[in-house]
Amino acid sequence: MTDVTVVGGGIVGVCSAIALQNEGFRVELVDRGLETEAASYGNCGLLATGEIVPISKPGILPKIPKWLSDPKSPLFVRPGDMISQMPWLMRFLWSGRRRKVLEIVAGMTPLLQRAEQDYRALLETAGLSDKLVNTPNIMAFNSKADIDGDSFSWKLRTTNGFNHRFLDANDMRAVEPALSGPITCGLLLEDWLQFSDPGIVRNRLAEFFLSRGGSLLKASVSGLVAKGGTVTAIRLGGGEQVEVKRLVLSAGAWSGKLARDIGIRVPLAALQGYHHHLPNPAVTVNHAVLYANGGFVLTPMETGLRIGGTIEVAGLDPKPNFDRANIIAEKAKAVLPGLDISGGKQWMGPRPFMPDTMPVIGKAPAHDNVVLAFGHGQVGMTLGATTGRLVADLVAGRKPPIDMSPYRSNRF
Fold first, then answer.
1. φ, ψ of residue 227 in degrees (nearest 5)
2. In which region does residue 23 sit, left (phi positive, over 0), alpha (psi from -120 to 50) or beta (all else)?
3. DSSP conformation letters of 188-253
4. Measuring CA to CA, how many Å separate 195 from each of 142, 234, 299, 352?
5. Distance in angstroms (rounded) separating the CA atoms of residues 153 and 181
6. Is 382 helix (H, G, I), strand (E, B) or coil?
7. What single string gives the DSSP state of each residue in 153-200?
8. In terms of Cα–Cα distance, which of 377, 347, 365, 379 is closest to 409?
9. Quick check: helix, strand or coil at residue 130?
10. What does each of the 412 residues of the chain score in pLDDT, given as a tens digit?
11. Which of 50, 63, 194, 391 could form a disulfide with 162 if both were Cys (CB 3.0 to 4.6 A apart)?
12. Alpha carbons 348 and 314: distance in angstroms, whole number
């Protein structure tokens, strides 16, 4: 019998499965199909080690009315989902209080400080070291006033050991000559790196897991079956049950629905992200560029240029609104003259967000054989390897090297 069943084959689930193998466990991964193009495939591919500050923070409140009413804004709520998503949105805004933000930063920093070293160790073991690109990211701005306007966030990053360097107009032309338009300056994010292609990284790691004797059950999971304080089985989409000994719940945006079967109610939202992937963009971008004023990211990958971003609040399984992908592609043309968006591929996928943008990682409160690992928001790719190592510690009965209380499921 399998020692540990991991539900969810995204980057967090795959990294957890490998870390559990390293502990000597027999592991089965359960997923609808590793070819599924969910968040681990469609993200911007950043190792965003300095992303310790939540999206909701002091100063965001005045921007919300425009964002909610403007389909071109970085954060948009579909009108038909406004009422159903209001409880989550209120918690999201409440998490932006200064005192709460400082708590979140204190929780995220220990996770993100480990991200690079954990990935380097994992990728080296899997023979994939070349998939982590040793080039820092750049955050681009229209003016220095835009940087100064968010000094609260940048000071927090610096204080916690995440470094950046100011780039003036000449510096920007030197490092990214293809960029123009309203961009006049930037910050070189010295600790942020990128992956050559996140989907390829996830797939190659999954192949590595299988090559070491891991098993894959290709199925959707519709529920968890518990007796007393133990989860005894998972229920598949067809109604059949598969016995489990230990369970890791890492099903991304679908985790909240499954967790309810064992009495865990978490405010987990599926915030849709979009990208426009260009195999032949006709321009060269040397770094991953986060354009703060435009609300999108340009990531050069081994498969082309990815233009990704936006947050759309629209429930768990909405129909794609590819106008969002077209909007960021058009915005990119304004700062990349000559960009060819023909032949591009559009994508939409759900990112699992808690209102405070911190993940849920830890033992289930009332079911000792279950470990929870979901809700990573915009840093799911970044924290895959680190979460996997923490999951392995918890399953093995070992005390993790960091305080896990900030990530408890019952913090709301």
1. -130, 115
2. alpha
3. EETT-EEES-HHHHHHHHHHHHHHTT-EEEE--EEEEEEETTEEEEEEETTS-EEE-SSEEE--GG
4. 26, 33, 9, 20
5. 26
6. coil
7. HHHHHHHTT--EEEE-HHHHHHH-TT--TT--EEEEETT-EEES-HHH
8. 365
9. helix
10. 799 999 999 999 999 999 999 999 999 999 998 777 889 999 999 999 999 999 999 988 888 777 777 777 888 888 888 899 999 999 999 999 999 999 999 999 999 999 999 999 999 999 999 999 999 999 999 999 999 999 999 999 999 999 999 999 999 999 999 999 999 999 999 999 999 999 999 999 999 999 999 999 999 999 999 999 999 999 999 999 999 999 999 999 999 999 999 999 999 999 999 999 999 999 999 999 999 999 999 999 999 999 998 888 887 888 898 988 999 999 999 999 999 999 999 999 999 999 999 999 999 999 999 999 999 999 999 999 999 999 999 999 999 999 999 999 999 9
11. 50
12. 12
CA dihedral 23, 28, 31, 37 (to 10 degrees): 40
- The model's pTM: 0.96
Instruction: Measure the CA–CA gap between 96 and 153, rounded to whole angstroms.
Output: 12
Q: What pLDDT was estimated at residue 37?
A: 82
pLDDT of residue 59: 86
Distance of CA 117 to the CA centre of its chain: 18
| Phi–psi pair at 223, nearest 5 degrees | -175, 170
Domains annotated on the chain, with CATH:
4-40+200-267+357-407 (3.50.50.60), 55-96+130-193+269-353 (3.30.9.10)
**Which has the closest alpha carbon to 395: 285, 244, 269, 290?**
244
> What is the SS3 assignment for 315-367?
CCCCCCCCHHHHHHHHHHHHHCCCCCCCCCEEEEEEEEECCCCCCEEEEECCE
Q: Which helix (H) or strand (E) holds 277?
A: strand 269-278
Residue 26: Cβ-neighbour burial (10 angstroms; 0-12, 13-18, 19+): middle
What is the C-alpha separation between 54 and 17, in angstroms, rounded?
28
The three-state DSSP-derived secondary structure of 69-112 is: HCCCCCEEECHHHHHHHHHHHHHHHHCCCHHHHHHHHHHHHHHH
Q: Which tokens sit at 362?
A: 């830890």
Using CA atoms, how far apart are residues 252 and 352, in angstroms rounded to an integer?
Answer: 6
**Taking Cα atoms as reference points, which of 8, 1, 3 lies closest to residue 224?**
8
- Spacing of C-alpha 2 from chain mean position: 28
Q: Which of 208, 109, 195, 214 is nearest to 160 (CA)?
A: 109
pLDDT on residue 79: 82
